[in-house]
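Give me structure tokens for this 113-residue protein.
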Amino acid sequence: MDSETHPYADVPLERRPNYKEWRTSRGDTEIRVVNWFSLTKFLGAAHLYLDGEEVDRSTALTVSPHTLLLTSGAVSVFFAGALSIKASILWNDEVLLRDELNLLDRIANKMMQ
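Here you go.
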């Protein structure tokens, strides 16, 4: 992927603000999703890695939970959450990983439909 140009570009992903990571696999394919954001600098990114290689990135700070944010081949990633980021990772239509949504998350999702 292209190099990043922002105040955190030289900071390792794991040390960026509000860093969160999800890992799962399907067959021999290792899937890793990373999200981080800074509200004070109003920036952040979501990254999709397949077998250690970054294959997609989004710098959207807000997204509807019904809108695909990251994708590559059969892998699709959606984000949701009212107070914390929740992820759903799908392989075609098979759910590989889905964070549990609390009541506030479900209400926010309904409002975004």
